[in-house]
Amino acid sequence: MALQAGVLVSSRVSDSRIRAILGPTNTGKTHLAIERMCGHSSGAIGFPLRLLAREVYDKVCKLKGADQVALITGEERIEPPHARYLLCTAEAMPRSANERAFVALDEVQLGADRERGHIFTDRLLHARGREETMLLGSATVEPLVKALIPGVTVEGRPRFSTLSHAGPVKLSRLPPRSAVVAFSVEEVYRVAELLRRFRGGAAVVMGALSPETRNRQVALFQSGEVDYIVATDAIGMGLNLDVAHVAFASLSKYDGMRHRRLMPSEMAQIAGRAGRHHQDGSFGTLSGAGGRDSAFTEEEIYAIEQHRFAPLTRLFWREAEPRLDTLDNLIADLERGPDDPALAPAPEAIDLAVLKRLSDDADIGGAVRGRAQLRRFWDVCQLPDFRQQGAEMHARFVARLWRDLKDGHLGADFVAARIADLGEVRGDIDTLQGRLAAIRSWAYICQRPDWVLAREEMAARARGVEARLSDALHQRLTERFVNRRTAILMKSMGKDVGLLKVVLEENGQVTVEGQVIGHLEGFRFVVDADASHEDRKLMLAAAEKHLPQLLAAKAAALVASELGVLELGRDAAGAPAILREGQVVAQLERTREPTRWRLVLAKDLAPLDPVHRARLAEALEVWLEGKLAPLAPLRALEEAAKDPEMGSEVRALLLALVERNGSVRREESGVAAIPKEKRPLLRQLGIIIGTLDVFQHALLKPAARALLAQLGLDTRPLNPRMEAVITPEGPLPAGYCRAGTQAVRLDMAEKLFRSAHETREKAGQKLGGGSFLMDAGLPTSMGLVAENYLKLMREAGFRATEPQPLAEGAFGPPAPRLWTWRPPRRDNPVNRPARGEERKSRHPRGPRGGYTPAGTPREVKPAARSPLRKPDGPPPGGGAFAGLADLLRK
């Protein structure tokens, strides 16, 4: 586009080599541009941020070698002599066409930005590659790209992952790997401070930070040292982060002119940071932020999730090559508007505001003479306002700089002194940020080829000071907004104990992942005295979760050194005790709670001094807790039975399970009275409501049964190995139910019943329905004899027919058994007939029902009343069988 006689004349022509790759964030546009550039002999890419340019520069250096790649920004220049690939900011991007084979411009929609839009518009119109030109940006700029560049090829790219609205969330419930976006420094600091107190801290990213500090803060988040990052809207410009959720602290911002609500496209640019590649992301707001703009509207949610936004109507334009014969002509050209309807005159940027202010100063503007001096003066006025102090204050700095530059160069000693003045690394965050902004100004000055003597040396010094200030600022931000100890504790809450590095030091200090959380006084954990009030609860929780194994190890070492090897056993009177080589070390007295015991040291230890005796007793208590660990499920039932919110029915069942050591007959459990909505509470406690029994599954393990027997809590016979099926000799062992001459462990019997019900349901047989087939493979694999299997299943309501004999002369396997099912009445005593009352039936019962096949009563022997249960206790099978048996005995 050229200026002729004050009229903007379009020199744009159709060029099929220009491609516009437009779409939402996380579509791989930048990655595609890098691949395309590296496929050409030379290339250049312009970025909106120095940080992005540096990130891509590092990537291309790995691909092509550092001697082939250049980095040019306002504050940094790395230019190898034979560099073929250029990564730069949009301002430093070459305007001329065809100098390189490939040229790309990132975030072209920034042509609508009030401050920098004219720069992006100019590069959009003029920056071209010999072989290929690529424009990257949002789909909202598509109509303008087509209008400004006839024949451009526009390609859309879908987002790799899904972006969905998650609604408002409290800061205390913010999910890990989240970014919180705020639009003022005060709000950023407030949110980061709250995250430090409650979540261990957050990284902080703001536009006012130097790129080095931002890199360090981003690395803090990327490495997982903190799970949260708090940022301004600078996060929306291509920072590649592993963010799963973006939370907006506010939906409005001050744009330099007024306080306004974000546009949906701006919201999407920021929210789009959530989700990387094919990992889905979410966005929402922080609840409790307040204000009328604290929630997304339905229209905004739809637009962001579907990536549908109103197209841009214009891009800002300013003459990029104004006349440099007089100040008046220079200003007039910079203020002139375009004739193209797709373009709008750029608002007054800070460089133009400074130019106009200084031109009104007779001592400055009046002394500018000649084209060369005017060009130099205009270059000085374009010094970026890194301090963000506004046009008036920035104009004063530029005026002082011009007075030193108008007649030549800045002396090396003068520049070195200014740089050294800014090298002090002491001070708070705001002080260091001010120094960083100032040193960035001097870094920019030192990059200019004709402004400073000994330019390369001064530029190196400026970069060195910037690096030291960045390190110091990163340290201050980390000290203020990251509590490493809290962060480690928060993460450890959800980890497997075995994966954490929990260490008890020789001096008694307890550390988690290298961070001291407290120390042990004997066997009592004491929180670190330096911990804040907010950290104390976390540390106590961490200690409760991670210290038992350390305490057990310490107790074992102490006991071993004092007493040797110990074991649980019985004393001469048969009471439970702790023994050492058969000798009683301590007796165990039962308390009101079955799983809790009072430890009483043996009289032989009375001569010990009180301090040593207390220390030994404490070690024995910790040792005992470790030995009683298999009974933790029973203790959980005890604790739950104390909770009034469980309800009386559930508590009654829990007390019965505790009293009977983990299992109770179903007909005696009262489970029928428990409401359905309460039954999930039982499942959470590991309780299984079986067909014949209600039991706690974990208490069927060998260690738990052995411990119950050792402590005398369960006097029934013990089967040490707790096999699935056994043939008992004598009374029925604990944890089993009878099956004819064999016994089946309760959980395995329930497995058989459930398998039978699943088979019945698959066959489509309901209550009172027809017969069905069952596979006898499962009971056979357990070792259950067929006859005993039939007796066990009959207890659960399943009946099997006798196999039909083959016809005479026929060969082959016998016909399989057919099964039917009718539920046993165990849960509802109301349905049971009264004792002595005969139950009438339409169908003759088999031997278990008390009838012969002909329908006449037969004698039922008392010893045969319950082949599946031990003789003591109520008869199995419900009241119907009990009443019939009583009737026949008369």
TrEMBL record:
Q: Which PANTHER family match?
A: ATP-DEPENDENT RNA AND DNA HELICASE, ATP-DEPENDENT RNA HELICASE SUPV3L1, MITOCHONDRIAL-RELATED
Which residue spans adopt a coiled-coil conformation according to this UniProt entry? Answer: none
Q: Which GO terms describe its molecular function?
A: helicase activity
Residue ranges of every copy of the Helicase C-terminal domain listed in the record: 166-328
Give the organism, scientific name.
Alteraurantiacibacter lauratis
Q: Where is this region: Disordered?
A: 804-890
Entry annotated with the keyword Transmembrane: no
Name of the protein described by the UniProt record: Helicase-related protein
